[in-house]
Amino acid sequence: MRSTCCRRAAAQTIAARTSAIHPVPYSWVNPDAPGPSSGPLAGRAIAIKDNISYISSPTSCSSLILQDYNPPYSATCVESLVEAGAHITGQTKMDEFGMGSQTTHLPPHYTPVHNPASPSPGEPPRSAGGSSGGSAAAVAEGSCWAALGTDTGGSVRLPASYCGVVGLKPSYGLISRHGIVSYADSLDCVGILAKTTDITRQVFSILSHPDEKDMTCVSSSSRKLANEILDSHQSKITPTSTHPLIGIRIGLPLQTHLPAPHVQTPPSLLEHLQSLGATLHPVDIPSFKMALPAYYVLASAEASSNLGRYGGGWVGSKIGDNEGEFVGESGEERRKRIRSGRFGPEVKKRILAGTYALSADEFNNTYLKALHLRSTLRRQFNSIFRIPHPLRPSHTAPTKGIDILLHPTAFRTAPLLDSSTERGQSEYLQDLLTVPASLAGLPALSVPAGKLNDGWPVGMSLTGQWGMEDLIFRIAEGVE
Ligand code: GLN
Question: Where is the composition biased (Low complexity) (predicted)?
Fold first, then answer.
């Protein structure tokens, strides 16, 4: 374990190095210089979000309730990176427990994360997106080669779009979540941020493997099945050197077409994809826009249950309080004091909303309805892909279906950091286009696709059938 003073000195060093550009995206910087290493990621600098356990550092999830928590082990994904030769550069700032879209739900002593993609130095600072805003900013400013984030409802893809980098939310269950602090387990995925699709693919190939320590991480047999299905599908796609996307059917969801000034899929990009051989097809996913309310009900419900473990039990019980002051306090009073004082306002809001959705009076009307919507949405996704779902062998895919969905990742560019109008409900609205793939457990990649008139980057999302990351990478290279 490193000493606190060592950590502080290293944090100051990186602060001095990057503060000329903008406040640092890191909550902790690794004081160890990278040693000699070998393996496919030898010498590569990779940052990790502060909800991913790393034995050498505190993992606080940007929460006061975990501010002195040092995990006793590293997450499986971190171990895989280190075994492959990578150097962990530090842990990055995030919205508390992953709840947010702008990396603004931070402990009071944190400096905000500014979006490094600013078109001109005099511009008022904009958000890097969230909740993995620190990871996206670290990649965009060039202080690491790649970064890990987590994506429950868009937290890797939205910051990727706002910062002009690539962001992958993999198929649910392909990357182990052992050692990741849970937000909403039925949705949480470890995601990857990098400057290019090729780097994202390299990191994904290291992280995607079975893990006995995570029972939701899929087995090798399911992975084999997905590969066989993809291989048999490849015969329908016969790339040539001039037309690498020949045979690929790209779906454009009607529901994501929002009028200007909202971000739209650039017509020049569509023409480019056609010139590479792809064909374009409008598709109807009627429940697409209902995904947002369903997501917030389900994610809050799961979060309210997950966060029950903090404040009085084995985690978050001591944290800096002078316990002597509270002699005679009952267990319940102590729990109330710790939770009221150390959870931030957004987390408290989610706990209340989630507890309400799960209460006896509301359960049928709210939680079950959201679950129903989720299965309807999954069915609708399965009815548009011509690749069958590898884990649901009974489902037959339409022969005239599509291979990949394409739409903007977000309907806007990065919001101003200090605007109160960007808070509250409009913050939730930013997830409109990312939550459907999360509810369906599908892989989705946000890839930079130029800039809007305001000079800020926009990202396009490619969503595929479960397990079709390779196909997504291939098409993304056509977008880059
Ligand atoms: N903004 C969404 C939320 O607050 C998504 C967050 C995430 O993917 N971690 O729930």
Answer: 125-135
